[in-house]
Every structure is written in C-alpha cells, then in structure tokens.
Model the fold of this input.
Amino acid sequence: MLRYYMISLAAILTQAAIGLNAQEADPIGDKLAKAREASESRSAKARDGFQDAMEKRLNTISKKAGLDDIKRLKSESEAFRQDGTIPTNPFVALDRKNYETELARARSDLKKALEAAKAEYVKSGKLAEAEAIESELRSGASPVVERVEKAREPLDPIVGFWRLVIGERGTKQTILNVYFPPVDNPGVRSAMARRNQTSPVKYFQGSWSKSGDIYTLHGPNGATAKVKMRGVSEGFVGRLAAGAPVVGFRQQR
Done:
C-alpha cells in the first residue's frame, strides 16, 4: 500500500546537522532515529487500518445503502488510497476519528522525542544539532508523520473530475476533460492537482461559483456555462454562454 510522507526542509537540515561527522558516535541521534521509525510505523499501521475499515464498511452498506452512497464511499476510499485525501462520508466517521487519533498520538510521541533530543544536544554542547531540531519543531512538520488535511465540510457535488460533451446530439460534438476543485479546501485542491499530474488522461482545471442550484462554470479559453446538477452521481446539464448545450459526466478517479 502506498504511503505518503511530508518531508520538510527543516527535517532534512536536522538529518544533515546530525550527520555532519559520521565517524563520531551519536547516541542521541540514534535514539531519535528509532523514535522516527516508531512514529512512521504507527502512522502506517493507522493508515492501513483505516483503509481496511472502509473496505469493511463498503461490504456492510452494500446490503442496505443507496447506490449514490455506495459510489461516494468507494470513490472516497480510492482517493484516500491514492493520495491520503480524508473521506467525509458519514458511514466512516467513527473510523476516521480513530485514524486521526492515532496520527495525533504518533505526532505527539515524535514531538516529545524531538524535544528530548534537543535538550540532550544542548546539554552536550552540540548546538548546531539542537538548532536544526528547533527549526523542525517550529515548522510543525515531520518527515515520517503523514499529513492529514481535515475536511471542513462535505465537498460540493460539483467538485471532481468531469467529461464534458458540448453540442447537440446528431451534430459534431466537442469533448473536454475538466476538473473542478473546491473553493476553500487547499488540501483537496492540492490532492486533485497531484492526481491529475500522474493521470494518463489530463484534465483542464476549471473554476466555479454557485447561486441557488445553478452553477457557473469557467473552463479553458475563457468558456463559461450555466448548469444544474441532475444528482450527486448523475452529472449535470446546461448551456454555454454561447448557447451550445453541455452535459457533464462524472469520472471515477
């Protein structure tokens, strides 16, 4: 299973400072390295457990939930597996809480280890190493603890990857691949951009606004359209500003 780690410049500097003289014994650095490994192991175990829990939930709800709920959980589970995007589906709310609790504990344990190592380096007169760890602590980042972007609220249905079919049936139609990221969730925006970069099918990034149940979509080359959702998983329909009809089909990615 893929694991994603946030590597900060401060953490790299920490390792560089600790390893300046590789021939010198460094029991403090060795102890800290073990703490990093323990934190990584705990984070990985929590991630694997959350993924397994979502799979079990899928098997459970498939017997009683609606098709839209099943598709949404399956899509969110796949996004989490690929890049760590945290699911917002209420069916896995408890599992998500347990996962985030475990990550918080892993962070807390590593922070304590960093603070202890800093104090020991100061005591032994190794100020360069202590300063590197202080920089890492100030950055709030760790090279071995997975970054969690907590969802502020469920994503709008328009957020996602879409295949747009433009033009009347029976005439020459234009096909566009566009993705619409959320307006105010930078974590999900970044995750979608990364996913698009690694995809064999490239999508243009669009933008959107909403008034009531009408969306104004902005695509490539300044094109705009007014559309209305047909359902969470059924896509949308509307027209370009120039008048041509447009239909959007959600792509499972």
In short: DSSP finds six helices and eight strands in the chain. The beta strands are 160-166, 174-180, 204-205, 207-211, 214-218, 224-231, 235-240, 245-251.
